[in-house]
Design brief:
The structure is a homodimer. By secondary structure, chain A is of the alpha/beta class. Chain A folds into three domains: 43 residues; 212 residues, Rossmann fold, CATH 3.40.50.300; 37 residues, no CATH class. Helix content of chain A is 57%, strand content 13%. The first copy, chain A, has a seven-stranded parallel sheet, sandwiched between helices. In chain A, helix 11 links the parallel strand 6 and strand 7. The first copy, chain A, is globular. Chain A starts with a helix and ends with a helix. Chains A and B meet through helix 3, helix 9, helix 10, helix 13 and helix 14 of A and helix 3, helix 9, helix 10, helix 13 and helix 14 of B.
């Protein structure tokens, strides 16, 4: 007799696309079954190479993902794509367009594309994204690409999910790179300057190089490069895939791949524990007790820190 | 006999600038004394009106803060400014420049300016920023301005700290507003289009208006307006302060000011409790036990969720 999660896992191992899709939906909605399935799946994960692609809106990340995917398909490698959409009524349109553009590779049986919306906390999305990648990994996809727009926290989370992180920029980003994309600059294993036939490309490259001189990559022995691309004409795709390969080999030769993954596991497990505790912490009665205290805080009878300490003590004695 | 924190609080109530400064430093470094002082100070807070100013880099937020401050000073109101700097080697220069520009108002005895760097978690900064505002509030500053660059999560946090949130944009932001600043658009009580003498100003206003048509402000009865400004020439300052006043009156007349503040207290207290628990949770021995499990996760002997659940159980039985 097999349990439901064992049965589901078996189907994932055989890359039954419907089951893969269904489990990712369960992950997305926070269905508790998904946890049991993920536990089963875990032993078959770790084989896929995970690539993160991020950058500002309009940088051409989807087109690039498209081209890289086609390149890997020519090498007969299977590719799973997880596109992280920030939840916003304003970006919905553009991202939907990107998805449509992907229809070309979407029909390929060796490709699995999935959009996930960033609802709720950023931490929450990050966890669900990685959970979804584990499903694709267990289903046997050899390459997993996370594609996320460089908005808010999500682009920094991507570095915790990927083996190689690519930051896509365009000549137009030049000016504001320094101030705005500081977070992005620090997570890039290498840069792609897309639309590099446009005016300002060389200036942009100089700007990125200058920034890189003042910057330490989280791995001090790895020097991020800048690859020129024109994704719309498939220019630079081979160079990008070669650079991914070069970074992968670097990681393997220096025993960094496992080390980085272990670091990422640590962050991930911590997040899961903290979420479990938060769920327990903010159960109805305690949330209600907090509501009641707030009135007293407002009139100065007690202070936020005093209420917090009381709640903390109550929590400790309750479990 | 007074305790040290009572003595310190007394000095804050008398607006002893050195003590105010010292306590904010304690808050910034996470000195545990600061908690006791904040508890003492709390009863004298809630009188200041808190304004959040955010927007992309280069939008002129500092100049605008400068002008608004001078305007309030002409009305004899005291002003405390908390400038939130994202920690990054690349932005340091620009922000330092802003600080220098502020020297004009910095010498005014009715003004207190303080920069705080966003080290570590965003949640952490948000808490420290609000703590610092409480110190200024208790010291009697009538207006408190949070100024923060629209990068990452910090701009969304600002809405949880301010009574009125202003989003500053410039004509040049026009194009990417839709996709990029989605988070910003949703927290704005009103917009300032700075540098509105530049080309593209009307297009930008149309773009913002269009977005606003599709958007619900968190308070459905409040319709955010767009104020034109040329901060470098002090153009529009009166309009901005008038609009702050109009929003304040709206909040007061609809009993929203207290309600919003209570909502913010709730978020803040929750964050403090969660941080207290995290401190307890990741004490050395548990962190070490996590490290040991990770090796087993890597070789597939156990899974992240299993390890997390074990750690959660251990935590529960240990406290």
């Amino acid at each position: 007799m097999h349990t439901i999660s064992e049965n589901m896992s078996e189907k994932v191992f055989n890359n039954d696309k419907k089951s893969v899709s269904r489990i990712i939906s369960k992950i997305e909605t926070g269905n508790s079954n998904s946890i049991e399935i993920l536990k089963e799946l875990h032993k078959n994960t770790g084989r896929a190479y995970r690539i993160g692609i991020t950058g500002p809106p309009g940088a051409g990340k989807s087109t690039l993902t498209n081209q890289i995917t086609k390149y890997y398909r020519q090498q007969n490698k299977t590719v799973g794509i997880i596109a992280v959409d920030p939840t916003s009524p304003f970006t919905g349109g553009a991202l939907l367009g990107d998805r449509v553009r992907m229809s070309e590779i979407g029909c390929d049986d060796g490709v699995f594309i999935r959009s996930m919306a960033t609802r709720g906390s950023f931490g929450g999305l990050s966890r669900k994204t990685i959970d979804a990648a584990d499903v694709l990994d267990a289903a046997g996809y050899e390459i997993i690409i996370f594609e996320t727009v460089g908005v808010g926290q999500s682009e920094l989370d991507i570095a915790k999910a990927a083996d190689t992180t690519i930051v896509v920029l365009i000549p137009e980003s030049g000016d504001s790179i320094q101030a705005m994309k500081a977070g992005l600059m620090e997570i890039a294993d290498f840069f792609v300057l897309n639309k590099s036939d446009r005016q300002g490309a060389d200036t942009a490259i100089t700007a990125i190089r200058t920034i890189l001189m003042f910057k330490n990559h989280s791995d001090k022995d790895w020097k991020p490069t800048i690859i020129k691309a024109i994704a719309s004409e498939n220019g630079g795709t081979k160079d990008i895939v070669d650079e991914i390969e070069r970074h992968k080999n670097y990681l393997l030769n220096n025993e960094m791949l496992q080390k980085n993954r272990q670091k990422n596991y640590k962050v991930r497990i911590k997040e899961i524990v903290e979420e479990l505790i938060k769920d327990e912490l903010w159960k109805d009665h305690r949330d209600k007790s907090l509501e009641e205290s707030i009135v007293k805080v407002t009139i100065g009878e007690t202070s936020p820190y005093q209420v917090a300490e009381t709640l903390f003590r109550e929590f400790k004695s309750s479990i």
